[in-house]
């Protein structure tokens, strides 16, 4: 290719542009990103459990991440960064779309949270390593998944904790996450490309190639009367934790 920067670009430009156009509405719980607001407490429950399992001394603390650094890759407008900051972490959020970073910074300032936001690809930023790295609903938008996971692993401290979530590539997710969800406006059209989804087995193998081992794995499922919840059913979406092998 001849261009040394090409290998560092894992997020497709059209994907970054798509989400950038949604940035101004990201914090509206009834706006186009409503689905993220509904799933966020479920994700955060898993993240808190993973933190408590990884650092058992933190279980009783309201700020279990005090004194620890956290990185959220593909942070959007900060829906995960802000709760991590409230758990006591020194938080860095990175996103490929500068508009998302601007929306995130403005919102954090408005609620009085000190979060460092940076626009760019995580591989191209000299930001060191972190005790906790999160990346939720990002890898399905990535062209070169092995390269992305190597970049993620490089940001993890030796005794660090990684949490990732992503849609599964199943018949159910094709119908519900892509077809029905877009048809009823639950997610904006163009959000999901089913063929880019990754199964838990595939992700676990790629993480192993990057030197990481999965420590816990749960489905994020939906049912009437209960809504979104952590479940053994991984057919639509799943969330996992990992550490260095």
Automatic annotation (TrEMBL):
UniProt record similarity statement: Belongs to the methyltransferase superfamily. UbiG/COQ3 family.
Reaction catalysis annotation: a 3-(all-trans-polyprenyl)benzene-1,2-diol + S-adenosyl-L-methionine = a 2-methoxy-6-(all-trans-polyprenyl)phenol + S-adenosyl-L-homocysteine + H(+); a 3-demethylubiquinol + S-adenosyl-L-methionine = a ubiquinol + S-adenosyl-L-homocysteine + H(+)
Keywords attached to this entry: Methyltransferase, S-adenosyl-L-methionine, Transferase, Ubiquinone biosynthesis
Task of the protein: O-methyltransferase that catalyzes the 2 O-methylation steps in the ubiquinone biosynthetic pathway.
Record pathway: Cofactor biosynthesis; ubiquinone biosynthesis
Gene: ubiG
SUPFAM superfamilies (alphabetical): S-adenosyl-L-methionine-dependent methyltransferases (SSF53335)
Molecular function via GO: 2-polyprenyl-6-hydroxyphenol methylase activity; 3-demethylubiquinol 3-O-methyltransferase activity; polyprenyldihydroxybenzoate methyltransferase activity
Any Pfam family matching the protein: Methyltransf_23
Lineage: Bacteria, Pseudomonadati, Pseudomonadota, Alphaproteobacteria, Sphingomonadales
InterPro entries documented for this protein: SAM-dependent_MTases_sf, UbiG_MeTrfase
Protein name: Ubiquinone biosynthesis O-methyltransferase
